[in-house]
Amino acid sequence: MKYLNCEDIKYLQLDHNSTCNLRCPQCARTHAGNTHPDLPLTELIVDDYKWFLKDLLNLDTVMWCGNYGEVGFSETFLDCLQYVVENTRAKCIITTNASVRDESWWKEVAKLLDRRGKVNFSIDGLEDTNPIYRVNSNWNRIISNVKAFNDAGGRSRWDYLVFDHNEHQVDDAVDLAKELGFEQFQIKLTNRFVNDNQYTHGGEAQAQQVKNKRSEYVLGMPKNPNFQGSGKTQNQEIIEKYGSWTNYVNTTPIKCKWQPNGQLFIDFEARVWSCTWTASGYHHYGDNTQKHQAQKLFDKYGKYFNSLRHHSIEEILNNDYFANDFCASWQGTMEDEVPKLLACGRTCGTDYEFSSAYGSNKRLITL
Question: Check: CATH 1.10.340.30 for 7-194+210-220+255-298+356-366?
Answer without folding.
Answer: no
